Fold this protein.
Amino acid sequence: MSLKLLTEVLSNLFKKASTVEYPKQPSLALQEHRGRHYPDLSKCIGCSLCALECPTNAITMNPLPTKVKHNPRGIYPVVEYGKCIFCYRCVDVCPVKAYITTNYFENASDTLITSNELSLETLPRTESLKT
Ligand code: SF4
Ligand code: SF4
């Protein structure tokens, strides 16, 4: 080992780590990072366009748990994040701009993670079956 290299190695021993100790320390995502997104059911009209346009078939249309005036078909999209490539095509094509976007990126899981719970929280309170 050359003296230059040895000096470099020894000096690095006393420097602050360059890497982030994730997940012990939270890693910050950029504000504009494309993270989890979910349809706001107080806006969604159930047109299915987002599901039709999704390149990875990550979106399925599910029946609403209750009737909503602005959604006569009574269906809403559910995004499966494990299949999603976060292209945001669905966000762009939605005619009523129903998708809420976030920069949340921690999607690694051994269970199915979907947008369902987040979306159900956006159902108009007076029309929701949830109390
Ligand atoms: S971001 Fe892209 S891949 Fe993900 S659900 Fe939307 S259209 Fe599909
Ligand atoms: S494109 Fe928009 S309005 Fe149509 S189903 Fe998807 S989220 Fe709802």
Q: What stands out?
A: The longest strand covers residues 59-63. Helices lie at 3-13, 49-53, 89-93, 116-120. The two ends are 69 Å apart (CA to CA). The chain has a mean pLDDT of 91.
